């Protein structure tokens, strides 16, 4: 399929894609944003489309995957915000034997330098290195280094718990 034919096929299914986006998001603005993001992804990945296959299904799958990725990212951000706004790492209390152990672990976490602690908590919250780097506006190597250093420091300080 040549580029003009590919583009024409994409333009022909824009309304169907918008309807699908609206069903996923239940919001007109979010649906338009998802449609735009999907259209750009489709155009960027034109060479990945296999000719003589269902173009519409391929486009709908890209949209569904983009929506799912955005949903997961949003849920991780909410979990991170909850962790930061509540006492630190409260969700990890059940893994610890007693409240004194919990307070000791939290004290050790508080000893981490703030630049390391922020990266480490985002990592614990499920963010990928790339996402942390984007969120903190840092090179990915710096993020990896800070998380590694945090882990090393915590291993030293929490030897009795391992």
Structural account:
The radius of gyration is 22 Å and the shape is elongated. The chain starts with a helix and ends in a 5-residue tail after the last helix. It is built from 8 helices and no strands. The chain has 162 residues and is mainly alpha-helical.
What descriptors fit this protein?
162 residues, mainly alpha, 8 helices, 74% helix
Helix content: over 70%
Return the structural class. mainly alpha
Q: How many separate helices?
A: 8
Q: Helices and strands, in N-to-C order?
A: HHHHHHHH
Number of strands: 0
Sheet with the most strands, sense and barrel status: none
Backbone shape: elongated
| Mean of all residue-level pLDDT scores | 82
Radius of gyration: 22 Å
How much β-strand is present in the residues?
under 5%
From the N-terminal CA to the C-terminal CA, the straight-line distance is 58 Å
Low-confidence stretches: 88-98
Which helices and strands occur, and which strands form pairs?
Layout: H1 3-12, H2 14-25, H3 28-44, H4 55-85, H5 99-111, H6 114-124, H7 129-136, H8 140-157
Condensed summary:
With 162 residues, the protein is mainly α. It contains 8 helices and no strands.
């Amino acid at each position: 399929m040549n580029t003009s034919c590919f583009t024409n096929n994409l333009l022909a299914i824009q309304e169907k894609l918008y309807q699908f986006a609206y069903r996923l998001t239940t919001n007109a603005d979010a649906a338009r944003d998802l449609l735009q993001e999907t259209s750009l992804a489709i155009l960027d990945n034109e060479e990945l489309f296999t000719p003589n296959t269902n173009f519409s299904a391929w486009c709908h799958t890209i949209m569904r995957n983009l929506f799912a990725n955005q949903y997961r990212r949003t849920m991780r951000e909410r979990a991170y915000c909850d962790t930061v706004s509540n006492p630190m790492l409260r969700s990890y209390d059940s893994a610890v034997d007693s409240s004194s152990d919990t307070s000791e672990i939290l004290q050790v976490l508080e000893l981490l330098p703030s630049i390391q602690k922020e990266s480490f908590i985002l990592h614990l919250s499920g963010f990928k290195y790339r996402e942390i780097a984007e969120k903190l506006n840092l090179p990915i190597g710096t993020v990896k280094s800070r998380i590694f250093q945090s882990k090393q420091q915590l291993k030293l300080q929490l030897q009795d718990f391992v």
